[in-house]
Amino acid sequence: MRIHKFSTVDAFVAIDLDDAERSVGIVRRARKILQGGAKDLARSQTYAFAAHELEYGGASAGINGIGEGSEDAPSAFAAEAADLVATGTFLPDPGKGMTEADLAPLRAADPRNTAADQAVLTAASVAGSLEAALGVLDGRTIAIEGFENGGAEVAKAVVGRGAKVTAVATSAGMVANTYGLDVNAMADAFGRMGPGFIDEFGDVKTAHFIAGAETDGLTYASKMGALNHQAAGFVKAKAVATAAPMVMTAKALAVLRRADVLALPDFVTTAGPIVGWEAAGGTPADALTAQAAAAAGAIIDEVRDHPDGPLLGACYKAEAFLGTWQEQLPFGRPLAP
Question: Which CATH class, in words, describes the domain spanning 2-109?
Fold first, then answer.
């Protein structure tokens, strides 16, 4: 893992595999972005590529500084990152605190197809993963934690496959309805009201109660490490799929395995955008979402019954591929500490 520091702005990029043809990852901007978190995100992306048998590496960048005096930070970052993009050393996507517009000057030199809605493709891979884990989504119940982080897209994706979303949590709390929540109405309300929209959909409980929702599937996405061992101890779902990288901790994985809960690998459940990046220009959006769901589902089918669980099974699969083109495997697997 290499840290490349910028000279014109307080920023850095963690690059996992120095000899990869291209390295891809998100750029986050906040008052202080820790290098450790960026390294974890880079590793998760490396495993995502490896699980899909692509000889690319993961990366993740951080821009330190928000508010007065740092308004030009995104443009300065983009200007200095241009050479990295031109060589494939770092191909960025917007994360927290950044927008697609911030990275627009870099897109012309980016060899990927970035036209597709990445949130929709991520949701498709989450839905495809859950469907493979549970056997079918039709008639299943799903709970969604971290609705602010792509939850509307995930909700629509699972409902589109016949499931019901019966519980949702935001930073403002949790709401549940055993008959199913209206996901289109929730998406609209979230757009208008933000996290507090759940007040409009029933009695609100503390957000952490989502962990114990009595559903078939559970998704987590609010922040890195949100699904820790304490939350995992309350999980009643049959399968857990994170809808953002590095959300599940290593201790949570151990707790879920002891409870016979299928803990799915985030580097598969969130890898839908890879399908879009590799697709030919002009591929219809519906075709891309179907391909993203199918690709994730195929990997989960392969590792679901692994004796060490699907997450470690997927790690072994990714590492086997990495071993075909890397002299030495990168140290450390993609799990939040």
Answer: alpha beta
What residue segments make up the domains of the chain, in order of their start? 2-109, 118-312
* Secondary structure of residue 74 in the 3-state scheme: helix
Contact between 229 and 252 under an 8 Å Cβ cutoff? The reply is yes
Q: Is the dihedral of CA 290, 23, 152, 305 positive or negative?
A: positive
Q: What is the DSSP string of 268-319?
A: HHT-HHHHHHHSPTT--HHHHHHHHHHHHHHHHHHHTT-TT-HHHHHHHHHH
User: Same fold for the domain at 2-109 and the one at 118-312?
Assistant: yes
CATH topology of domain 118-312: Rossmann fold (3.40.50)
DSSP category for residue 143:
E
Q: In what order do the strands lie in the sheet with 2-5?
A: 2-5, 11-15, 57-64, 23-30, 91-94
CB within 8 Å of 124: residues ≥ 6 apart? 157, 272, 288, 289, 290, 292, 293, 296
CA distance 295 to 313: 16
- The C-alpha angle with vertex 82 and arms to 77 and 86, in degrees rounded to 5, equals 150
Three-state DSSP at 6 gives: coil
Per-run averaged pLDDT (10 residues), the chain, 337 residues: 95 96 96 95 97 97 86 94 96 95 95 92 98 97 96 97 97 96 95 94 95 97 94 97 95 96 97 93 91 97 96 97 94 90
Q: Do the beta carbons of residue 186 and residue 176 sit within 8 Å?
A: no
Cβ atoms within 10 A of the Cβ of 100, count? Answer: 11
Helix (H) or strand (E) holding 110: none
The pairing of strands 262-263 and 239-242 is parallel
Stated pTM of the model: 0.94
